[in-house]
Amino acid sequence: MRRGSRTVISVGGAGARLGIDFGTFNTVAVLALPGREPRPMLFDGSPLLRSAVWADTGERMLVGQDALHTSISFPQSFEPYPKRCVDDGTVLLGEREITVEDLFAVPLRRVATEARLSTGEPITEAVLTFPAAWGTQRRATLLAAANKILPTVRLVAEPVAAANFFVEVAGSQLPVGQCAVVYDFGAGTFDVTVVRRTGDGFEILATEGLADCGGLDIDAAIVERLGAAIGAGDESTWNRLTSPVTASDRRASQQLWANARAGKEMLARTTTTVIHVPLFDVELPLGREELEELAEPIIARTVATTRRVLGRTEDAEETLAAIFLSGGSSRMPAVSSALHRALDITPSVVEQPELVVAEGSLRIPATSAGSATAAAESTAAVPAVPAGSWTSRWRSRRVRVAGVAAAVVGILGAVATITAIASGDGPDRSGSGAGNLAANVSSTPTSTPTPSVTPTVTASGVDSCMVGVWREVSDQKTGKINNRNVQYTGPGGTLQTYTADGRVTLDFNRSKDLTTTVGGVKWRQRTRGTASANVYHRNGIEYVSNVRAKGSITLYRGSSRNNSDPLTLILEPSEYICTGDKMRFFGDGGSSEWVRVR
Question: Which domains does the chain have, with CATH numbers?
Fold first, then answer.
């Protein structure tokens, strides 16, 4: 296959292949029949299927516009963003408790049904994309949902799919060895990833996301501007739109947000538009300059995050050759302008950036880097992809082991910069708070140290307080065994060394086992190996990149070994406090405490 050329997907025999981008706000699917070009699927006339789900008290579950319509009358049974529930286990919709796997399966089932109806052919393969920072348990949840509906499911990292699309379909030039930024600005979230072109695909070098930064935030800024223009004159009517109680007011509110979104999208093609405000029954003008003013703080955050990720990636700025834009919000002209000013590279954008990930996934062979098959014991491990950070309420470092048999175990927590975990991911609802609640192994309350001075940093951006060798003295994690929340505790023992030039190394070989008891049975997690990474600190947050790890994690049920797997790492920003000879990493799901050795 010639690089940069538009290729035709060829499949032996009858059947259809699906590429599916299951997004926070929208789900997109691309269909490929033997010998034909992939084409986007349509749902009620649109290539975008709202991922929103509504459930009644029986067996019925609705998705997309049907779910939105029904939620007006029954809002208590509505989940607008199913993807954000990935770590919840179960979700309560009205009086009905639904597993996350079944929740994810609803939009996937709609895709499969539409594919069969439109082609009359069986589905022979489905390629499903996932955020680069998702670890084993999240990917296993997605895979389990897909396996309920689709045969032969393969997982592909979203930025790898996007990069593949731009190189293979859009004709973008990216020589082997050069890097690209994949800037994914969707409706609900923002993710940026640095990838390097290799001989057989793409390698992910670093990734970071903003869970509270997307096109919906720009819509909210538009609505706020509308309220400032007319709401002050009639606050009660405006409150009916922004805090609806009745079905009619919810319908009007939904229409207001739809109008704001449509006006924003129109301004990508023209310079002026008007937005109709229900209940007030007025048309208010909105120009592109005004929209760019409203969007500027949000876009600035995405650009700052992009620069930060590039700065953490060794040699990335020197080898950066392209910027690939995906996600519907990236079509705003202000996005390309801001990125060009910041990085001095003209971004590559296509007419429908929402389709980039789904179509790109279909064009990646099953053996390429960034692809994972369902046969890998549901671990969905991505070859040559050291996964990056997902900025959410969980900011600890993780090391993962695949779950086995009937005991699917998720151990969440922080071993300082990098944490040991068996087959799990931390909470990932929207928002940007972080971490693990402090406690030590004996459960004796421990006061949180407070820095006495503003931290100073070295020339490499390392907090001077952190430089030295540290020993972990306590570790607590929360996780799940057979869908039950449990707490794992241990006396630590890991050694961690920071250097002023921006490196951190961890030695897990002295780590003590983490333990918990469930139903009278003792579980133990044992981590052995070493890891190293680049590191820098800012505003009480630690960022790491370019991780190298070697070792294993073994999980025991009683005296029997339950599972063992190589040590692999997920990079995520971590909150910390360092004062004198004490250091702590902390957040929602656990904590770790450290003392200085030298």
Answer: 16-170 (3.30.420.40), 215-292 (3.90.640.10), 392-596 (no CATH)
